[in-house]
Amino acid sequence: MFFFNSHLGQIWSGISLAMDLLWRMGYAFGISLLTAWVIAPWIIKYLKRRKWEQVFRDQKEVRDLAQLHSAKARTPTMGGIIIVIATMSGTIFLVHWNFQVIVTLCTYLAVMFMGFIDDLAKVRAQNTRGIPGRMKLLIQFGLTLVIGGILYFNPDLYERYCVLPIPFSGYSLSITPFIFFIIFLFCVLAGTSNAVNLTDGLDGLVTSCAMPVIFFLGIVSFITGNGTLATLCQCPYIAGNGELGILCASLLGALIVFLWHNGYPASIFMGDTGSLSLGILIGMVAFLTNHPFHLMIGGGIFVLEALSDIIQVFSYKFRHQRRIFKMAPLHHHFELLGVHETKITRRFGIISGLLSLLSIVGLWHFWG
Amino acid sequence: MFFFNSHLGQIWSGISLAMDLLWRMGYAFGISLLTAWVIAPWIIKYLKRRKWEQVFRDQKEVRDLAQLHSAKARTPTMGGIIIVIATMSGTIFLVHWNFQVIVTLCTYLAVMFMGFIDDLAKVRAQNTRGIPGRMKLLIQFGLTLVIGGILYFNPDLYERYCVLPIPFSGYSLSITPFIFFIIFLFCVLAGTSNAVNLTDGLDGLVTSCAMPVIFFLGIVSFITGNGTLATLCQCPYIAGNGELGILCASLLGALIVFLWHNGYPASIFMGDTGSLSLGILIGMVAFLTNHPFHLMIGGGIFVLEALSDIIQVFSYKFRHQRRIFKMAPLHHHFELLGVHETKITRRFGIISGLLSLLSIVGLWHFWG
């Protein structure tokens, strides 16, 4: 009975803080949506004129898939720029700058830059290699070290981020030696970033799967950043997390417009510029709001896509070149089974929505 | 400062009532979702075996459209049965029966029955006539009279439902002479029912446009049915409206599964069984929660579709057979302009989502 133990004034101030944040989230959403709406056609035209178009793997490499995707040739890539610009414009005007927001945005922009170089290398060389995978992982590891280091030298922050609630259990897991903490952080950041990148293989697939996840993360930020709500839900309270909600709201606005153009038949792809940065943003927000384990449920589609890829590689290596899926990641498997591309996208999106809902329910720590 | 004027106990009881309702809504959503998931494949198979398939207008009647839609032949119709069964199963176990729920469900089932007869007539005669339009309107008018009459003889209910808040204004409109009340009620019920029916022309179009509207109506029911929340938002409070939220949650669960099968390329259509009943349910809930004017924003897509049809007819009649749209309703216009079907559905769905969000914002009566 939290309500009877606290002062009325405290509850009221909690509620008015929540209302203030809600309004700012609404405005951020609106500004980002409008910005994206205005700039998207311009950027698409510009990318087309520069001939920065997606390069596809050929018949030799991917067999039937090359034919299935033949209609996608000459579609401009690097549309992630739209998402980044819109998200930034929604955020900078309404956010109260604090540690969480600055770290998240710096990581976001750094990874976006890496993705941009990657896309550019692919477009210039007209092949699908880009920056080597090891190099990307190394950069992501460097970022992890920097973020982990900053946290380590702020003991009160570090203390909070080591203790992670487990969904539907009421228990928390403590990740104590610093080395484990760094490894875990790397798994979260590199995991989300690369899983989202892997998922980006069909028109609108990443966008429709990411939108519910961002919505879920917005709610997590909203609750963990508000003392009253966090107490009500028995969530950890981390001051300033509400501002990450502004980021999520902006991103959601940008993604809605992006889906408008990116849906089948796509007029633009987000490229690595969009997918790597979107992924790491999801990972960062989940980590800074202390709910990466909930993300494993909510972002289940991304987890499945990454797992299917890993399983396929292991099966190929250790089971005498036998495959489990017709092709990895998962969405190509269904595509080769003859399911229409839009149907896969829609169904993955629906599953992502239901999983995000489930992880929102799991926020409530009365369980267990 | 509502919070300082009321007793702590009152706030607490308001919050715990809201939590109880939220849980029941969640369970209703889950039960409906699971029911639909289980029965959908069976019903689709059954309808296919009985050859109850959608009949399309031919080349003579609709020219190019017939060719565009040629791939849709042999798709079973009357899938609305899945929605109705799932919605009912989610509702009956969790709802606390009261006036609003009983009236809504009776109307829902009556209209579903009418739609079913209509579909059956079309399938049997293998043409697209079915029950004549005038007959349908007459039945809808009869229903309106019954509902209006019941309300008229319950003065305290009637008083409430005559006063309708206008979005974004802070004012309310009073519809006082009974004859105006009946005409207005008829416009709302027949309007929504037929507008949703008109919109049902592309794979998944009604489903994706209706889902945000149902979500919006669920929130309206939740707020207007809870004393604390209604006071906070300065909404009218109508005891028992929360139970309509259970209905909305069930319907949402059913629609998600229906979209799974109904999305392009559709394995099933909802037919008039689904669309007429879905429409009247939307109208009933909007009316019983006292927010039909908000529905005109939230259900803007349905309004536009109906308007485009009316404008086209008038233009054809009074402007020497000239047309404004290539074809009415609106979605066929875009289709004939060469926009891909899935793109129209997705974009209409996005617009519907944004409009529903706007009308949720408009619920807050501090405006004006």
Question: Could you characterize the architecture of this molecule?
Answer:
The structure is a homodimer of 368-residue chains. Chain A has 368 residues and is an all-alpha fold. Chain A has one domain. Helices cover 73% and strands 2% of the residues of chain A. Chain A contains 17 helices and 2 strands. A two-stranded antiparallel ribbon of chain A has the order 1-2. In chain A, a hairpin with a 6-residue loop joins β1 and β2. The longest helix of chain A has 42 residues. The model of chain A has no long low-confidence stretch (mean pLDDT 90). Chains A and B meet through α2, α12 and α17 of A and α2, α12 and α17 of B.
Whole-number mean pLDDT of chain A: 90
User: Judging from the principal axes of the Cα atoms, what is the shape of chain A?
Assistant: globular
Radius of gyration of chain A: 21 Å
* Helix amount of chain A: over 70%
Could you give the count of β-strands of chain A?
2
Strands of the widest sheet of chain A, in order across it, are 1-2
